[in-house]
Every structure is written in C-alpha cells, then in structure tokens.
Amino acid sequence: MTDEKQTTQPTESKEGRTAETSAAVRPDDQESGHGDQQRPRRRRRRRRAKSAPQNPAPSTPDPAVAVVEAGPELSSEELLLRAAQKATGQHHLSRAIGIYRELLQMHPRNIDARSRLATLLDRTGRRREALEELDLCLESDPRHRTALIARGTIRTAEGRFAEAETDMHAILDLDPGNAEAHYHLGVVISKKGLWSEAIPHLRRAIELDASQATAYFYLAEALNHVDDVQGAYQAFQRAAELRPTHAPTLYGLGIVLDRLNRPDEAAQMYRRSRELAAQ
Fold it and tell me: 6, 187, 194, 224 — which has fewest CB within 10 A?
C-alpha cells in the first residue's frame, strides 16, 4: 500500500500543475504553443500586415522604356554618328570633327558622314581639308547634292567661279526645282558681274523658298546694278524685314533711297547700318 501511494501522488501533482498551466494560457497561446513570450512579435506582424496594401495593382512598364528595351541595339556606326551630331549641336566642333574621323576610319563609305565632316571643316576655316573630303564624297557618288552645293560654295568663296558654276548646274540637271542651287548659282553669276543673268536664278530661288533673306539681298543688288531702282528698293525692304540686323542690307537700302531722292530716310539707314557694323 505504501508503494502504491508513492507512485500515484506525483502523477496527481503533475497533472494538477499541467491543468493549472493550461488554464492560465490564452486560447491564442494554446494554438501557437509559445505563450505570453510571443505576443509582442505577433502584434508587430499584425501592424505590418495592416500597413501593407491589400492586393497591390501590378505595375505597368513605361511605354518609352519598353520600346527602347525591345528595339535593336544601335551599331557602332550609329552611335558615333549620334555622338558627332550631339557635339555639333553643342558647338563642340573640334570634338565633332574627331568623332566623324573616327567613324570614317571604320566606315569609309559613309558619304553623309563625310559630307558633314567637310561642312564642319569649312566652318572652322579648314577649306582645303573640306574640299578633299568633298572630292572623296563625289568620287563615290557624283550625284550627291549636299556635297555638290558644299563644294560649289567653297569654290565661290575662293573665287573659283567657273568650277562653282559647274557644280550648281550639275545639281539643277538632277533637280531643276532646287532652291538652294538656284540661289548659289545666282550668287556666283553676280560675283562675276553678270547681273542680268543672275536675276532669273535669284527670282527662282525666292519663288521656291521665300524665307531666304540673302536671296532678296543679292536680288536687290543685281536689280540696282541694272537700274531697276524701285525693284531693288522692294527687295532690300523684304531682306531687311527677314533680317533686320544685317548691316549691308540697311546700307544697300540707304543707297536706293538716295537714288529715289529720299535723303532723310537714306541717312537713317546709313546711321543704323554703321551702328550695327560697330557692334
């Protein structure tokens, strides 16, 4: 009997303690099996759950980014061409020239790039190099209009009028309605002193593109030389409207006003021309 009591009492005591512990634990704790120690962590999880958006909408990709990502990668030729154009737009002409030269070392048949290089060389006063590049362009494509105009313009500036005229006629043979070619041909012929022959080309250039202030200027000069003073006055006026700060235009307007016996207005034009030239 003694041995039997000794074995049953600890069992009853253990069961009693287990029951008391079970009664003290909250129902939520019973499910987790960890008791009060886990309450703060569970509350933090609940707060994070409340702050998180419910069923967030799927993000939509930026169409512009999608197009770039989906498109083909640019070639080295295109990348260099864009870099040269950007440098030109930012007026970093020496850098643009270097990029075009690098491009042409890898792609020597890119005639448009060579023509643009020639234009930049001319803008920086390197006419001899520009002509060399333009000659290479026209060896590859004798009908390249941009190169023909560029070469004819440089030849005009160098006083090589016959060669310049040949270049402009070559363009007009290909494209009789090319306003730029008519304008440059009129300028070349004017510089040769053949005013009456220059007038039709300058008029045609204006008919095709009425926004060219310099075409009106050269037309006015030609008309004044053939004694069409009223026509010269009108052309100078239009040139001044399009380019009001061009000193030679205002000076020429003063000359024809003098010829029209309007000395006070002529004096104003002369004075304004001198002011602009001094700036």
Answer: 6
